[in-house]
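Structure tokens please, single chain.
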Amino acid sequence: MEKNIKRITMCPSCECRYRTPEAFLGRKVSCKNCGTSFTVDFEVDNKEKESPQVSMLKEVEIDTISQDDAYLVMGKLAVKYKFVDEEQIQEALSIQKQERLDGNKALLGEILVAQGMISQNQLDFLLSIQKVIETRKMDRKFGLIAVKNDFATQEDIEHALMEQKKSYEKTKTVRMIGDILVESNLMTKDQCDVILKKQQRFEEIDINEPETSEMPEPPRTSTNDAYFDLTVSEDKLTAFFSIKKESTVSFTLQDIKDYLEGKGIKYGIVDDEKILDYLENKEGLDTPLKIAEGKPPDTGIDASIKYYFDTDPLKIGTVKDGGGIDFKDRGDIPQVNKGDLLAEKIPAVEGATGHDVYGRYLSVSKPKDTTLRKGKGTSISEDKLKIYAETDGIPEISAIGKVYVSPRLEISGGVGLKTGHVDFDGKIDVIGTIQNGYRVRGNSLKANEILKAEIEMDGDISVPGGIIGAKIKGGGSISAMYVHESDIEVLGDVLVEKEIIDSKINTSGTCIAKNGPILSSRVSAKKGIQAIQIGSEISKSCNLSVGYDEKVKEDIDAIKEIIPLKKQVQTECHRRIKEIENEPDIIEKVIADMAQVQDRAVVKQRKLSEEIEKIKETGDEAQLKGVEVKLSELNLEIENREKKLESLFNKQDQITTEINDLKQNIEDSKTEIQDLREKISEIVEWSTSEKGIPEIKVSDVIFADTTINGIYSSLKLNQNKKNVLIKEDIPKSAGDSSEWNLDRDKYGSKIRIKQL
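Here you go.
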């Protein structure tokens, strides 16, 4: 059988041409000349062109075919399109099996062409259909994930799959449904990227070259092995050559080159002059010659964000060396004016592939990207690279990275009966106490003390005094002197100077009780817990969870509960529109008919009035009275009909207004759902961008019966421990420990206790 059939492919950038195995059609490679990544494609001679008159397979056929191994898909497709029959496929499979036994990697399509069973053009066609099958299979899984996470509806997915099918039949190229959904504004790019990352399709898309078009042969035994030594570094980037001392044979430059070729060394080989100098310098043979050096890959630069205002004062409650949290020395509060540049994204710089000494490409991972997010009081440039202030105020950053500008509200004397509830879209400074039963909402908050109040902030919360009996939700960090009997949920850190008692704390950051104990509390902190003491001899036991984001999961679940309610609003609006949409036309017809009757009545009214004037001239009182009665009845009839017409016009206007309001409600609901989905995407992206830290550090005693929940395992202490670091070992197979939706029984991890 003819092997390694090669065809010409060309780099689209520098037009350098390569002889490339046909099996590499559609694969991603890198140009050796300029380094550009491109997809292998071959020109088709017109005289050989064959165009089977076929369209995209039916979904059921794709499902049936795609269930097989990849190499069988080609065979089923070839039979499907009647290029070959079953016997020919079995023959080709037998040849393939024998080739593999002989150590050759033979593809089924390659064998079918080599045996003359199908033409190259038919193989190209089958490869394109195979790509369709693979993409459609992945895209249907993409759709399931999108619907499950409320990023899109099932109707949206079906529509996108239909558009994908139409696009393929028109252009013979396959578009991913994620791109179609984003272009149709049915899904955000961030949501699409989250799913692609979950499917691990970024690696498939962005990798520079999974295989090189000229893979080296495995090292072969050479007749010169008895005389030469070759040492290749572990990273395959350096090769050292030496001649064994006991050798008395003279060697030439070509002997060395033949030896290197036999060992597969082909990249970064030193100049001939260096090899000749080495051979001529007999005294230097004791020192190996660095005979080849590869090129390490350039890792590129991750995207970053540069802030144009002092962010340190916003990071409240910083723990200082030696102990306390400095609540007083916060520096000057930054102020910005409308139009000021607040933040700028520095885009990622792509890396470049390298080569090892065997000539193989060394791929480089895609640099990390980051998203610039605007909050209230800001605007973002069209290229999404700069954020500007839309108003004068104080710039702040939320825990998930949103930049916003807040006006400032100062309340003297505290929040209570005099102020009532406070709802202010800005920074709130309370010089006093927030009293029992009051609600305060805003961007960020500073208050001397919080009692049994309800607090909800987009950003940071600073309480130089204590928090007692409060319910607090925040998008940033929270700092306080102490926390008693409170329920706290924040995305940032929880920094407490003294004790945490009888409280429930849920944070995506770190929970620190710097100079006090945590007693009778339930604490969940993604980035770990630190305290002087946890539990006591007389308090209820604590329940601690570290390493995973329980807060994010609860937030996402809460948002997901809202989306069906918004969809129900749309359903009810559509139902009501359908119920009343024909009424204006019906009323219009009634009005038209009634108007005609009214016109005739007015004509009759005019005639009766003229008749009365004539009768008055004759003096016939009886006749005059009779006509006047008729006119009076007619006037009443006209008046009543006029009222009915006015009522119909009003009803028509009301229904038209109601329909317009219902349509606006539908559009508003769609916008709200989109905003909620974007919020989910933002939270998930932020949460998964940083790994959890499943550890608890206690400088004094952690008491028995404390329950510790890690990412994949749990532990209940059976005795007191002093001055310890409790940490969960994460198996490598577990992957990214920052995921919040975890199968806790899947991995055999273990929580260990280390003495400090």
